[in-house]
Sequence to fold (280 residues):
Amino acid sequence: MAELQIVRASEVSEAQLRLGMIAGFSGYAAAMQPDEQAFAFMMGQRGLKKEMSWVALSEDRVIAVWLVSVDGGTGYLIASGTDPDFRGQGIARRLAETALRCLRDGRVRRFQTEVMDGNEAAFALYRSLGMEVERELACFDLSGVAASFRGQLAVGPVSWRSIMDETPACRDWSPTWQNNDAAMERVEDGIYCLGVRDADGLAGYAVLLRATGAIAQIAVRPDRRRAGVGRAMIEGLFPVLDGKPLRVLNADASDAGFAAFMTALGAEPMVGQRELACRL
Fold:
């Protein structure tokens, strides 16, 4: 067997990274097969920092990845995985320890990620690195929700820049890394935003990732809830889906009101995730 090399992601090509990630997720419930465009969008949305990310090479083939983003003093694990033929050899831990050491040297003081429910191997690794569960995340499939397009509210497309300063007033919880405001700025050309305004400003908004059909953010100002604003925005997203299933990813599972809203729409629960973090 060829000797493994641990190198920065900046030392391999984009194609090698993409194929390495695909191999690393092989056999999992969340197996991914992104093409070049989808991979570029995913990494752009999450803010991949190649100089902070690490991969394992065997005969010039990426067989394990630990892809990282950094924003200020916080690091984020975008994706990690090992080719099935190389699992059980401690490669993921070697990559993790190398990446975390690199982050500490770069004065990053917090590290976080999400792990899908049921992926106990990854969860155990993250816990062994000192990461703790910070919150549970819920995901929903809205592809079976009927759109009636009643038009009772003035819901219309808006630019992200025109609403981004007002969105926190509508939210009860912070979006996860891949859905947060910085991520929306990074992929502004690939999102579709709807907004509802009244005399007091932004009453509600929704942000759709065009490439995936996922709702990255949706929120209604507290004083306008239970008045049809959220449903009107959901209905307003259907015409731009281009056949993709509509989904909500990584909602805060502790928000009973949001869960009730999803149930009222007829959304189906999907496999959830756990958000983990640690100090470095």
User: Anything to note?
Assistant: The first helix runs from residue 14 to 24. Residues 200 and 221 are 10 Å apart (CA to CA). The chain is about 25% helix and 30% strand. The chain has two domains: 5-108, 139-271.
